[in-house]
Amino acid sequence: MLKLGYKASAEQFCGKELLEYGVIAEQVGLDSVWISDHFQPWRHSGGQAPFSLAWLGALGAKTSRVLMGTSVLTPTFRYHPSIVAQAFGTLGAMFPGRVALGIGTGESLNEVPSSGMAWPEQKERTARFKEAVELIQRLWREERVTYEGRFYRTDRATIYERPQGSVPIYVAGAGPLMAKFAGEHAQGFICTSGKNWSLYSETLLPNVDAGLQKAGRSSQDIERMIEIKLSFDLDRQRALQDTRLWGALALTPDEKMNVQDPLQMEKLADGLPIERAASRWIVSDDAGEILEKLRPYLELGFTHLVFHAPGPDQARFLRLFSQHVAPRLRQAFG
Question: What CA–CA distances, in Å, run from 228 to 70, 192, 291, 293?
Fold first, then answer.
């Protein structure tokens, strides 16, 4: 069954305002709410960075139905994996069946300023990530965990509050290695829209399937989720201009991966022409056009679409989306 979700942009809004949008997302009928976990935003001027774990607790208390999760949190630098296991164990126990842990390998913008650490190469980041996932899962399964890894250790550690079963883990990936890892070990896979189509059709989803096959799992054992970057408004020009704030998303990985200062990121993003700033987004004032642009993702096998809107008036977006776009999506694919 098709699921529709809302991406709560912690880089753009303070926690209290963002909480109001998360509540509205449930009220208008969306199925999930996902928050980014950033220590610093993409831009310094007007940027925000509320703490995702505190925010998820507040959202759970203010809502009754939506699935809540991080998209995504990095469980390897700012957080020791045991603290991630503890936090999501508590959230999962408080809000049964409504919490998911979305995780990825991280970016220097969030990890270096908060710790002063030296940012490692991708090989080490991936190795840390795999070890962290193993430790988190063990802490949820076992009573007392003494762990001696290459990067992490625990000594007779116990997570005392945890849900019946475990919190589902969603792994974010932009390449074949993480996609395959998700297929082997995760309950969900996360990626983002607006990239070269062959990445989805020839690399990401095939490698998720390869991971499933390697682990002896079925296709139904993992949810395929994609963040859809959608700037929708009945005023097309407004929809286009709303993407300006998120120009950083149009920067290539090489342009932004090692940028550690929001002021530098902001300068790079603001130097882009509006056409490039909008290039990662579906920009439209027409629900039918949006449906056709989403159709290839759905036909490829994605079943959970999480919508990220760039504009300052998120309540307006949620109302317009629920009135004009969501019903047509559910009718066509639900």
Answer: 15, 6, 12, 10
Which of the following is catalytic: 11, 26, 107, 266? 107
- Contact status, residue 82 vs residue 88, Cβ threshold 8 Å: no
Residues 151-170: b if buried by 16+ CB within 10 A, e if exposed: ebebeebebeebbeebbbbb
Q: How far apart are the first and last CA of the chain?
A: 6
Q: One of 11, 20, 26, 38 is an active-site residue; which one?
A: 38
CATH node for 3-333:
3.20.20.30
Q: Give the closest residue to 38 by CA, choosing from 68, 78, 7, 67.
A: 78
CA distances from 48 to 41, 184, 248, 328 (A): 6, 35, 15, 33
| 38 classed as catalytic | yes
pLDDT digits (tens, 9 = 90+) for 236-279: 999 999 999 999 888 987 888 778 898 998 999 999 989 898 99
Whether 44 is catalytic is no
Residue with tokens 């307006």: 316
Phi first, then psi: what are they for 4, rounded to 5°? -120, 130
Could you state, in order of their start, the residue ranges of all structural domains in the chain? 3-333
Mean pLDDT of 3-26: 98
